Each structure stands twice: as structure tokens, then as C-alpha cells.
Design the sequence.
């Protein structure tokens, strides 16, 4: 049986590959196992705010990602008819961060860049078409039963980082519960080629409307965009697809007909909000969508994967290279769970409710807030500081950084309530 005296990362998405990169750069032996034959061709948007740009810089990825990504200088909030409410300009943070912008890039492009960097590390091995079928562990090792092109095989490692997505096989095998709920709303994600620039749309747009609420973001420099909106839960997948031209005529500026755009991909999906009961089970540690998922509105999960990859890899580096106690993984587990329950989940839920607010009194308050942000750059700055989380500050200590992130999420929630959700009793 092959033994890895280091870390096996299960899952070749962006979180897993970033975890492998940071571990590999620390000189640790890493094997990445991915069930698919290669990087997925389906584009999912990844948005990097200033805080995560700091992490990308430290990983040596920022320059390459910036070359391929769409530079997003502002975030636009619009009414259902496309009318602009306000543009939140990232340059108001020029005194707060070296990276006063947001980067947008499809996850497949991000993963391609990560693979290129990983191939330069002789201590990192990526194995495609390797599916984990079973997991067993004792006090010293984790043993994985694997299906590979060469047939069934076994692999054991000191540590396993499970980053294999929301349907995580590793999470299921180690018996960690994935508690939460599915929202009644059904979302539809569409990748489409359309010239939004003709209608002066920003690279990232949130549609604030009780019926046609949505977000619209540019995926890459080819002109591909992602539109995400709600459909009736009772509709079948076939009915959802039949309604796409009708919905796009309402959502796309200029009310285009199907001959004026090209749909690349349509994906109906159920919105869920779930978190594992524990991020660590013995020598197996979970991160990314394998550990927590939330609704896509507000971007609360888009950059979080970078932060989690950094947290997890730094904790493992401390154990393997610096002989730290494995209690740092317990701190990782406890703090990530607390962060999700107390801050990420409530904040994302509040944003999800707010973006489709139907009450006339509250909508009037929301419009007043947008107008204030449009005319007062100090309000805009505060809004974006909380949106991007920690304006690029970083603690040297792994544990202190985790604790600081917990504080930041709490501060973010308070500001969401203050600036986005004025009291309904006032």
C-alpha cells in the first residue's frame, strides 16, 4: 500500500487545489485525488474581493489571475426594469487596501491556473479519475479505498483534507452530519453571451426586485456572463428550460429575443444552507462546500473558500513542519463552525430576504439607503468595507487570524443590519 507522509487532498476544485498549493510550497508531500477526468468545463463565477486578493498574492497566484480575470471596479444595484440605483465604487477603499477592486473569473480558469502552479512543485501529485470509495482511520493514518483507471487501490496518509464539494463522499464515509435546510426557492443559473456594455451595465449587478430579483456578473474576458434568478419550485427542469427566453427577455437590458444572445449553459438547482456538525473527524478535515454551503446571493460563499483553504493549510503546516499540537485543527473546526452559525448564515439569509423585499415601506427605506450611498461616499466606503470583510489586514498567527475572521464576520453582520436592513420597527 502506498503511504503519503504528508496530506492527501480529496477534491480538485479551487479550494482543494489552493490547499494543495500552500501545503506544497511549504515543502509538504501532497497528493490530490479528483474523481473527474480533469477540470470541469462548466463555468461557475468566483469573485475575489480585496481581502482575498491578499491571500492570492501570498499564494503567488494574483498576477496570473489578474491577467485572465475581469477587473470589476464597482458593484451596481438595479431595479427590476434595469434602472440603476447606485454603483458602489471600489476606489473609495484606495486608502484602506492595496487592492481597491474585485476580480471576476470562472472557476474552471482559476483551477487551470492552480494546476499550472502545482505542476511546478515536485512534491505535489494530481491524480485525475481517482474516486474515493471508502475511508478508514486509526490513530496514525487515514486509509482510502480508491477506484482508479488501473483498478481498485489503497492509499494511506497522515492527514486528509476533504474538499470534494457539497456531495462529499469523504464527509459521508466519516459520518459527519451535514445539517441545515433547503430553501423553497429554486434558482436557475444561466451562462450567456450578450453585450451588456451596450447598456452600460457594470461587471457585477444585483437586481433588487420582489419578482425579477437576480444577480448578473461577467465570467471572463470572452464576453460570457452568469445570470442567476428564481423560478417557481413546482416547475420541472424541462419547464424551466422552456421559460428561459421569456425570463431573459425580462432580465436582460434591451428585452432581446433569442437570436440576439447565445445561451451556453442552463442549470436549475435547489438552494440549500448547511454546515457540518464538525469540521474535523480524527485525521480528516473538511473545507469548502464539503463543509458548508449557503445561498449564492451576496457573495458570502464566493471568496470564503480562499480563506478556508488558507486556514486549513496553515494549521496543517504548523503541525507537520513546526510540531504544533493538532489542537490547532480543533480550533479551526470550532471557529469555522461558529463563524458559519453566528455570522455567515444569518448575514447571507438577511441578504437573500433583502434582495427580493416586497413590502412597500421597507422597499422605500432600501431606496433611501441606495440614494444616501450614491451621494455620500463615506457611506459607500463603509458598505464596501463590510462587503469585502477585513480590508486586507492579516494576522501572523493562524489562531489569531481565525479569531480575527470571526470578529470580522460579526462586525459585517452588524453593518449589514445597519446599512442594508434598517429596523422594521422604526
Sequence:
Amino acid at each position: 500500500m502506498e503511504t503519503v507522509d504528508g496530506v492527501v487532498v480529496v477534491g480538485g476544485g479551487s479550494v482543494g487545489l489552493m490547499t494543495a498549493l500552500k501545503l506544497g510550497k511549504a515543502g509538504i508531500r501532497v497528493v490530490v485525488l479528483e474523481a473527474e477526468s480533469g477540470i470541469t468545463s462548466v463555468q461557475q463565477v468566483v469573485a475575489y474581493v480585496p481581502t482575498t486578493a491578499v491571500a492570492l498574492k501570498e499564494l503567488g497566484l494574483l498576477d496570473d489571475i489578474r491577467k485572465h480575470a475581469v477587473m470589476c471596479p464597482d458593484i451596481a444595484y438595479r431595479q427590476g426594469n434595469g434602472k440603476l440605483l447606485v454603483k458602489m465604487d471600489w476606489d473609495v477603499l484606495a486608502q484602506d487596501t492595496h487592492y481597491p477592486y474585485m476580480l471576476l473569473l470562472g472557476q474552471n480558469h482559476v483551477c487551470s491556473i492552480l494546476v499550472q502552479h502545482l505542476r511546478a512543485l515536485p512534491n505535489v501529485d494530481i491524480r485525475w479519475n481517482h474516486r474515493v470509495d471508502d475511508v478508514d482511520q486509526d490513530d496514525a493514518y487515514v486509509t482510502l479505498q480508491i477506484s482508479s483507471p488501473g483498478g481498485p487501490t489503497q492509499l494511506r496518509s497522515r492527514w486528509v483534507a476533504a474538499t470534494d464539494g457539497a456531495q462529499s463522499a469523504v464527509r459521508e464515509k466519516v459520518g459527519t452530519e451535514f445539517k441545515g435546510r433547503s430553501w423553497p426557492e429554486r434558482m436557475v443559473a444561466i451562462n450567456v453571451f450578450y453585450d451588456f456594455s451596450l447598456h452600460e451595465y457594470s461587471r457585477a449587478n444585483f437586481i433588487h426586485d420582489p419578482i425579477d430579483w437576480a444577480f448578473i456578473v461577467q465570467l471572463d474576458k470572452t464576453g460570457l456572463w452568469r445570470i442567476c434568478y428564481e423560478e417557481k419550485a413546482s416547475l420541472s427542469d424541462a419547464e424551466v428550460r422552456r421559460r428561459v427566453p421569456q425570463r431573459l427577455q425580462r432580465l436582460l437590458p434591451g428585452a432581446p429575443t433569442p437570436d440576439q444572445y447565445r445561451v451556453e449553459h442552463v442549470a436549475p438547482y435547489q438552494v440549500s444552507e448547511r454546515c457540518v456538525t464538525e469540521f474535523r473527524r480524527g485525521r480528516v478535515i473538511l473545507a469548502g462546500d464539503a463543509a458548508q454551503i449557503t445561498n449564492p446571493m451576496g457573495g458570502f460563499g464566493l471568496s470564503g473558500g480562499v480563506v478556508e483553504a488558507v486556514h486549513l493549510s496553515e494549521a496543517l503546516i504548523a503541525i507537520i513542519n513546526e510540531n504544533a499540537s493538532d489542537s490547532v485543527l480543533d480550533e479551526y473546526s470550532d471557529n469555522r463552525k461558529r463563524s458559519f452559525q453566528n455570522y455567515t448564515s444569518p448575514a447571507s439569509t438577511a441578504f437573500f430576504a433583502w434582495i427580493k423585499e416586497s413590502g412597500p415601506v421597507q422597499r422605500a427605506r432600501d431606496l433611501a439607503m441606495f440614494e444616501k450611498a450614491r451621494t455620500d461616499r463615506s457611506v459607500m466606503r463603509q458598505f464596501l468595507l463590510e462587503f469585502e470583510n477585513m480590508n486586507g489586514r492579516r494576522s501572523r498567527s493562524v489562531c489569531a487570524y481565525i479569531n480575527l475572521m470571526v470578529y470580522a464576520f460579526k462586525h459585517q453582520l452588524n453593518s449589514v443590519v445597519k446599512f442594508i436592513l434598517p429596523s422594521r420597527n422604526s
Observations:
- The two ends are 66 Å apart (CA to CA).
- The longest strand covers residues 178-193.
- The mean pLDDT is 87.
